Amino acid sequence: MNLHEYQAKEILCKHGVAVPYGILASTPNEAQEAALKIEQVSNSKYWVVKAQIHAGGRGKGGGVKVAKSIEEVRELANAMIGMQLITHQTGPEGKRVSKVLVTEDVYFKGEDPLKELYLSILLDRKERKNVVVYSTEGGVDIEEVASRSPERIFKEIIEPIGLQDYQIRKIAFKLGLSGDTIKYFANFLKAAYDAYLSSDASLVEVNPLLKAADGRIIAVDAKMVIDDNALYRKPSVAACRDMDEEDPYEVEASACNLNFIKLDGDVGCMVNGAGLAMATMDIIKHSGGAPANFLDVGGGANATSVEAGFRIILKDPNVKAILVNIFGGIVRCDRVALGIVSAYKEIGSVGIPVIVRLQGTNAVDGKRILDESGLKVQAAISLLDAANLVKYAVV
């Protein structure tokens, strides 16, 4: 589960990470009031207005602006709230901005020059351990640094015993830090790692991580991704979920305990098991088609979940055919067949070809149910046959 910047900063701040003082605003008036309060608390002469969406690259897309007056804060908030912000991570359709974060500007001048760094904590699945990824080249172009100069990106593997002081010093030295700044950095990294572990996060990313003129280490921007499997034991974190930022099809599927990812093809897929779902999409692509979704109804599929899957698939106007591919192991094929019949009855005329392949437990009973239903459903024996039927159906 992705968190907004302001939510990630709230969690980091609770664990002792220094972040710019900021206030969330949903209207231009609220943004102006926030700027006035920030001025009183931090004596900041400039403010930063930041669009809150689940995507990176907001600065390049016009979603991060510096205001030099209270009135300008209001003007920027008025322009951002309601806009469709397009970045390299949103796709051409962009994402609608419903709120902005107004923060103090921490980029003040001093004798010691400012320095933008990059740091993230995440799980290295190959090593099966947590890892700190860091670089001296922080800022908006970190992706280009990773692509063009990978030698500037460093990694520090954290053993199960936990983050050690010598590792913190090693990271600090490679980042070019010295003096009291190393103490600030040590406090920051320990706090950030504690936030990562206690929140059951799969990613904490701070970019840029600012070495301020007075030597302080400040998380100017922050991103957190929480492990979905741990949300049941983190109700306060689960409450941060923003449904408006998620695909509506995926939200509905999640409510029905279905694993669904929308794609851009025209063949709707309903399969039980992630591996079989991947193989089904591969064979559809191999046959010249294009899958419109990944939909895994799971091992406990029944008539209700199959009907819900049909409803979700049929909401996509691009779908021209549906392929149901069920291997009956734990799930029973006759239950899936009953779900298909029920879906037809509840939804009415489906209007597009439906190809069904049932193999395994009670497959014969499942085929009999479909045959006796009178529905216009095409049966397939092999997966390749099913894919070819779909291919001809969408031509």
TrEMBL record:
<comment type="pathway">
    <text>Carbohydrate metabolism; tricarboxylic acid cycle; succinate from succinyl-CoA (ligase route): step 1/1.</text>
</comment>
<keyword id="KW-0436">Ligase</keyword>
<dbReference type="InterPro" id="IPR013815">
    <property type="entry name" value="ATP_grasp_subdomain_1"/>
</dbReference>
<feature type="binding site">
    <location>
        <position position="116"/>
    </location>
    <ligand>
        <name>ATP</name>
    </ligand>
</feature>
<dbReference type="GO" id="GO:0005829">
    <property type="term" value="C:cytosol"/>
</dbReference>
<dbReference type="GO" id="GO:0006099">
    <property type="term" value="P:tricarboxylic acid cycle"/>
</dbReference>
<dbReference type="GO" id="GO:0004775">
    <property type="term" value="F:succinate-CoA ligase (ADP-forming) activity"/>
</dbReference>
<dbReference type="InterPro" id="IPR005809">
    <property type="entry name" value="Succ_CoA_ligase-like_bsu"/>
</dbReference>
<feature type="binding site">
    <location>
        <position position="50"/>
    </location>
    <ligand>
        <name>ATP</name>
    </ligand>
</feature>
<feature type="binding site">
    <location>
        <position position="207"/>
    </location>
    <ligand>
        <name>Mg(2+)</name>
    </ligand>
</feature>
<feature type="domain" description="ATP-grasp">
    <location>
        <begin position="9"/>
        <end position="237"/>
    </location>
</feature>
<dbReference type="GO" id="GO:0000287">
    <property type="term" value="F:magnesium ion binding"/>
</dbReference>
<dbReference type="InterPro" id="IPR017866">
    <property type="entry name" value="Succ-CoA_synthase_bsu_CS"/>
</dbReference>
<dbReference type="GO" id="GO:0042709">
    <property type="term" value="C:succinate-CoA ligase complex"/>
</dbReference>
<dbReference type="InterPro" id="IPR005811">
    <property type="entry name" value="SUCC_ACL_C"/>
</dbReference>
<keyword id="KW-0547">Nucleotide-binding</keyword>
<feature type="binding site">
    <location>
        <position position="272"/>
    </location>
    <ligand>
        <name>substrate</name>
    </ligand>
</feature>
<dbReference type="Pfam" id="PF00549">
    <property type="entry name" value="Ligase_CoA"/>
</dbReference>
<comment type="subunit">
    <text>Heterotetramer of two alpha and two beta subunits.</text>
</comment>
<feature type="binding site">
    <location>
        <position position="221"/>
    </location>
    <ligand>
        <name>Mg(2+)</name>
    </ligand>
</feature>
<dbReference type="InterPro" id="IPR011761">
    <property type="entry name" value="ATP-grasp"/>
</dbReference>
<comment type="similarity">
    <text>Belongs to the succinate/malate CoA ligase beta subunit family.</text>
</comment>
<feature type="binding site">
    <location>
        <begin position="57"/>
        <end position="59"/>
    </location>
    <ligand>
        <name>ATP</name>
    </ligand>
</feature>
<dbReference type="GO" id="GO:0006104">
    <property type="term" value="P:succinyl-CoA metabolic process"/>
</dbReference>
<dbReference type="GO" id="GO:0004776">
    <property type="term" value="F:succinate-CoA ligase (GDP-forming) activity"/>
</dbReference>
<dbReference type="Pfam" id="PF08442">
    <property type="entry name" value="ATP-grasp_2"/>
</dbReference>
<feature type="binding site">
    <location>
        <begin position="329"/>
        <end position="331"/>
    </location>
    <ligand>
        <name>substrate</name>
    </ligand>
</feature>
<keyword id="KW-0067">ATP-binding</keyword>
<dbReference type="InterPro" id="IPR013650">
    <property type="entry name" value="ATP-grasp_succ-CoA_synth-type"/>
</dbReference>
<protein>
    <recommendedName>
        <fullName>Succinate--CoA ligase [ADP-forming] subunit beta</fullName>
        <ecNumber>6.2.1.5</ecNumber>
    </recommendedName>
</protein>
<feature type="binding site">
    <location>
        <position position="106"/>
    </location>
    <ligand>
        <name>ATP</name>
    </ligand>
</feature>
<keyword id="KW-0460">Magnesium</keyword>
<dbReference type="InterPro" id="IPR016102">
    <property type="entry name" value="Succinyl-CoA_synth-like"/>
</dbReference>
<dbReference type="GO" id="GO:0005524">
    <property type="term" value="F:ATP binding"/>
</dbReference>
<comment type="function">
    <text>Succinyl-CoA synthetase functions in the citric acid cycle (TCA), coupling the hydrolysis of succinyl-CoA to the synthesis of either ATP or GTP and thus represents the only step of substrate-level phosphorylation in the TCA. The beta subunit provides nucleotide specificity of the enzyme and binds the substrate succinate, while the binding sites for coenzyme A and phosphate are found in the alpha subunit.</text>
</comment>
<keyword id="KW-0479">Metal-binding</keyword>
<keyword id="KW-0816">Tricarboxylic acid cycle</keyword>
